[in-house]
Amino acid sequence: MKLRKVALLLIFAGLAAAGSAADRREQTTRSQQILSDTSVENYTGKDKVLFLYSEGIKNAEIYDDTAKAIYYFDAAIAADPSYAPAYYHAASAIGQTDPKRALEYCLAANRLDSTNQWYRTQLGRLYLINEEVEKARVLYENEVKRNPRNPENYSMLAMIYQFNRQPYRAIMLLDSAETYLGRTDMLTGYKREILMSVGLYDRAIAESEAMIRDNPYDYSNYLALAEIYAATNKDSLAMANFEAAKAINPEGVDILSALNDYYMSRGDMQNFFSTAKELILNDQIPRDAKLRFYEELVRNMNFYRENFAHIDELAGLLLVKYPKDFEVMSLYAQNKINSGNLETALDFYKRMLNDSTPDIRVFNMVLDMEAFLNRGDSVAKYAVIAQEFFPKKPELYIRQGQALAHYMQKTKEAVSSFKKAMKLVQTDSARSTIYGMIGDAYQYGGKLRKCIGSYEKALRLWPENILVLNNYSYFLSEQDKDLKRALEMSKKVMESEPGNATYIDTYGWILFKLGLYKEAKEQLVRAISLDSTGSEEIFLHYGDVLHALGEDFLAPIYWRKALDAGYDKEEIEERLKKLEQQ
Hints:
Layout: H1 2-13, H2 21-35, H3 38-41, H4 45-61, H5 66-79, H6 84-94, H7 99-112, H8 117-129, H9 133-146, H10 151-163, H11 167-181, H12 185-197, H13 201-214, H14 219-231, H15 235-248, H16 253-265, H17 269-281, H18 287-299, H19 301-306, H20 308-321, H21 326-338, H22 342-352, H23 360-372, H24 376-389, H25 394-407, H26 411-422, H27 428-444, H28 448-461, H29 466-479, H30 483-496, H31 501-513, H32 517-530, H33 536-548, H34 555-565, H35 569-581
Helix pairs in contact: 1-8, 2-5, 4-5, 4-6, 5-6, 6-7, 7-8, 8-9, 9-10, 10-11, 10-12, 11-12, 12-13, 13-14, 14-15, 16-17, 17-20, 18-20, 20-21, 21-22, 22-23, 23-24, 24-25, 25-26, 25-27, 26-27, 27-28, 27-29, 29-30, 29-31, 30-31, 31-32, 31-33, 32-33, 33-34, 34-35
């Protein structure tokens, strides 16, 4: 049921938009050029049409060059507008990429030869692709009458009835098909799915049992019957038929998948994960399908926590199957991180760096994790190692520079690393960002003149660089310099991202520095309400503003919040001591 619904919806949806008028004009011009080509001039009359038509078939079927094929088909049509096969094959070539135009070709083929079954079948499908469902219904109803021994006509018409919410009409149609064709796997299986969709389980069971009698060695019949029994909560009968299907086809992916779903529906986690392991190890299942299955398991955090040990085992099996796959490695490492084993995940990634050609994404993971652990020396170390393999990647020099500046206070070395990155970037916006980082490095190193110079260079290259505007304006506020300009820059930043708590905090702090305490309080209240990180600086600034406004009962509360969030203990104690002495 599920697969057929999807298939029909895909047909109805269409797969691409029709070509533009300009495309059509280009194709017409190209077709005219082909007609005047010297290789075509050797042919006349019907021979020319056949040559052009054959070239179209060759480009469509052998070279998979749809555009060139259409040029030849159009040229054949121009040479003989009554040559129906050229219209038919042109429609086939663009049926999925330009369904509206394909329908035009197909209608022309059918007008020229209304007796051709292939043309009519193509027309029915193109009606569906173009969402002309009623025309498709009429066509297939006529096709069933015209050729009652073609199972495809019944199948397509039954899908249309079901799409039109006429399941009982679809069942009656498929019953009548058995009169002409006998019981067939395709039609009986489809009828069984429709019967289940309307709750006629007894009839669905009867159909399945009849299929088993007709073909006792086809595992899919037992599987279908097992799923019906499962849907009706007849578990012992369901399991008996699952086992029968598995006895015929022990490695059947669809059997394993159905069993896996069944165990999940019954809450039998032991058997669910047992079949899940089999699915992960099954070579018939594509790697992407396995990853989607795994990701579905970890999406629900409650389920993930309750079954962590099983899921961790599945992650390990995926790694066994795909030991060099970065996405699989990331799933495995993330599982370790989720369990609190950050160092285990980091060691795992570091082992991956021992490959002769390590993946730069592995380096990036190591750098991210070392930075998260505040180990600047390790960030710098692995950035240097990565540069040996990827000397043209500017982000590696940037990471090294940030580690040297932020964690290790090695300003000179940090600036040198940033300048190496500068030589590798191509745009002014990237250069501006790096100059901003150089300014930050000089700020950390206490080289204030060079800090201002670097920020100014950054803004000359890209005046709208939000990060630089924010950092520069905050720097000026801390130095009590050019506060009006700092306020202008900060306002621009805040207006560009009105929900960013950090930017609002900067703006509020500059207002405080300007003595506009009430306005500062209003902004910092917004910053606290929007902040999701528990920023110690926002708490500190708000406490300072409250103190300036004389609200000394509340100010210590926020200073202590800043202390709890990680702010410098001595500075907080100094504020509290001064308040007590007043």
